[in-house]
Design a protein that fits this description.
Elements lengths: L11 H6 L7 E4 L5 E5 L7 H12 L6 E4 L2 E4 H6 L9 E9 L4 E10 L2 E10 L5 E6 L5 E8 L5 E7 L7 E6 H5 L5 E2 L7 E8 L5 E11 L3 E12 L2 E2 L3 E2 L11 E9 L2 E10 L11 E8 L10 E2 L5 E10 L2 E9 L4 E8 L4 E12 L1 E2 L3 E5 L3 E5 L1 E3 L5 E3 L1
Antiparallel strand pairs: 1-2, 3-4, 5-6, 6-7, 7-8, 9-10, 10-11, 11-12, 13-14, 14-15, 15-16, 15-17, 18-19, 19-20, 20-21, 22-23, 23-24, 24-25, 26-29, 27-28, 29-30
Length: 388
């Protein structure tokens, strides 16, 4: 069965039709009347199968227009004033500061239907340099940048350059400038995505990501991992998400910071209160876990509770760790912040912004352990994004 996509950037469609669940499928007739909705496995639903058989008897050719390699109904693009294409779309930004007032910014540019990763290098008042990090025929996106203890810039990103499967790649600015190839952080037979980095005091680069796994050939789940890259090469994978729970417990959107030379990883766990774990959390929940200085896994703990909590970011402020994430309640979003250590949370959750239609992932900046700032984008009126 073919599929076309809706544009719902301010979640107005979702809030109207999906207030009480996560719909798997909705069928609408040509007059706009909803004839079917379901939240379960549709291959077991007799009502859905009857609708499919009816549709199959009288097929109609849809008026499709492709934008950025995604098929939409032409009317969907027209209604959202997106018919004029192609245009450049720059997103997935990441920022790092180096020595001599140098600022590094990575971003993904969608150009002529293809995604490429670029690095913008701004040194003082000089004219910025735009450096292609991964700009090939492959689908390359979600680049992030950090600087190590010596001020050297490193970039990681997601790419399917070796075929259909996505993996994480890593390279330094020095190697990119000298046209040396990137290193594959993962070489998986299933998709690996959302690479995030941190550098320790010995200039080792730690990369965390999530990897898809098949479940009995009927579904896939995600697990969170971390690897260390140093002079001796890339270490073995360490699974951060727990191994003593069902595979259906999904883990995603990991992020990493290093405090007192200990990596700390935060991620979102689609939490169903498995036996032996907390009853104070439910649904996608932000969890954290550290590795000690010997590389051994420490006890995991949760930062959020019973909202739908996603896309955490974590950073170090002096000897303190802070984590921010977005939380979805019954119909509105909020932006949350909480202090933590390598072993537990500290203090209560702080709500920075509440009652929002939508919000995007936040980001931190700290100055010499003295001051901190957080930035994010949000929609309040259901229409316009604003930066805060």
């Amino acid at each position: 069965m073919g599929a076309v996509y809706l544009m719902d950037p301010n979640r107005s469609f979702e809030r109207k039709y999906n207030r009480n669940g996560w719909p798997f499928l909705m069928l609408v007739d040509e007059t706009g009347k909803i004839v079917y909705q379901c939240n379960n496995l549709v291959d077991r639903d007799k009502t859905f199968m009857r609708h499919l058989q009816t549709i199959a008897k009288t097929p109609r050719k849809a008026d499709i227009q492709t934008a950025d390699r995604i098929p939409y109904l032409r009317s969907t693009l027209a209604n959202n004033k997106e018919s004029d294409a192609p245009r450049i779309n720059e997103r997935f930004t990441s920022l790092a500061c180096g020595v001599d007032d140098t600022i590094y910014t990575t971003y993904t540019a969608t150009e002529n239907g293809n995604s490429n990763v670029y690095l913008r290098v701004q040194k003082g008042s000089e004219k910025p340099k735009i450096i292609p990090v991964a700009a090939t025929d492959a689908d390359e996106y979600d680049g992030t940048v950090i600087t190590d203890a010596q001020g050297k810039a490193w970039v990681c990103w997601t790419s399917n350059e070796r075929g259909r499967i996505y993996n994480i790649y890593l390279n330094s600015l020095d190697r990119i400038t000298n046209q040396k190839p990137a290193r594959a952080v993962s070489q998986s037979k299933e998709d690996v995505m959302h690479g995030r980095m941190a550098a320790d005091a010995s200039n080792n680069i730690w990369v965390t990501y999530y990897k898809w796994h098949k479940i009995k050939n009927i579904s896939r789940d995600k697990e969170v991992y971390v690897r260390k890259f140093g002079e001796s090469g890339i270490s073995k994978e360490i699974q951060i998400s727990p191994t003593d729970v069902s595979q259906y417990e999904d883990h995603t959107d990991s992020t990493i910071a290093i405090v007192n030379n200990q990596p700390v990883i935060c991620w979102s766990w689609d939490f169903h209160q498995p036996k032996g774990y907390t009853k104070e959390a439910h649904s996608p929940t932000i969890f954290a876990r550290a590795l000690n200085q010997q590389g051994q896994l420490q006890k995991l703990f949760h930062l959020s509770d019973k909202s739908i909590d996603m896309t955490p970011v974590i950073d170090v402020f002096g000897d303190e760790l802070w984590c921010a994430w977005d939380a979805l309640g019954k119909s509105k979003k909020a932006l949350c912040l909480r202090k933590l250590s390598t072993e537990k949370t500290s203090g209560s959750k702080i709500i920075l912004a509440d009652n929002l239609v939508n919000t995007c992932s936040p980001d931190f900046a700290f100055y010499k352990g003295q001051k901190g700032a957080i930035v994010w984008s949000q929609i309040e009126n259901g229409k316009d994004w604003s930066l805060w």
